[in-house]
Design a protein that fits this description.
Helix content is 51%, strand content 7%. It is mainly α. The strands form two sheets. It has a two-stranded parallel ribbon. It starts with a strand and ends in a 19-residue tail after the last strand.
């Protein structure tokens, strides 16, 4: 399990966006459109609504696996669940990693316990609800 402060996840998200925006031609245009669609999706998800569009689905099928592969190979995140702790993870970032297929198990605990005093369970639907980690780890 990869455990880290939310800043680690924020930095990974920022790097994905910066690298995508730096792409040229059709890849850059596709990335920008996909991220606009992601912003709409994340906003709807934060409000508890559903969002679907043809544009977001085909771009997500092309874009997200490539991003996940890059992030998995660049870090230990691909080896199992990740546990941000130390502060609440921004909901948009939790939604982004959830869409990529990463298990984000938000944790709570003292620095000495690396945030694993209490952690969401894998597959728990509330894992993209920032700041909610109500079960104690065993």
């Amino acid at each position: 399990m990869l455990s880290g402060v939310p800043r680690v996840y924020e930095k990974a998200f920022s790097n994905v966006v910066a690298n995508g925006l730096a792409e040229r031609a059709w890849r850059g245009r596709s990335f920008r459109v996909a991220m606009r669609e992601f912003e709409k999706y994340a906003e709807a998800k934060e409000k508890g609504q559903s969002y679907s569009s043809f544009d977001s689905s085909w771009r997500a099928r092309w874009l997200f696996p490539e991003i996940k592969e890059t992030l998995s190979s660049d870090s230990a995140a691909g080896s199992g669940p990740s546990c941000p702790a130390g502060a609440p993870l921004e909901q948009k970032i939790a939604i982004f990693f959830d869409l990529l297929g990463f298990d984000i198990l938000e944790g709570y605990g003292l620095t000495e316990t690396i945030g694993l005093t209490s952690v969401n369970l894998p597959g728990q639907k509330s894992r993209v609800r920032s700041g909610d980690c109500s079960r104690a780890s065993s």
